[in-house]
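Technical note accompanying the year-one report. For the benefit of new consortium partners, we illustrate the data format agreed upon in the data management plan: each record pairs a sequence with a structure-token string. No post-processing was applied to the example shown here.
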Amino acid sequence: MDEEDKAPFKGGEFGLPRNLEGMSVDSLKEYRAALKAEIEHVDQALDHRKGAVAGAEALFRN
């Protein structure tokens, strides 16, 4: 586990956590779907970066 993974969540930095009071059920469902899509987007970026780091490490090991 990376040190970043252990760091406390700084949600305010990203506008999270969001106040959900007063949101309709439909709005909450839409918000949840948008968050899931964003998580997938972040996961793709992380995978891409892991690949780049692995490639750089392999290059410099030789």
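Partners are asked to follow this layout when depositing records. Helices lie at 3-6, 25-61.
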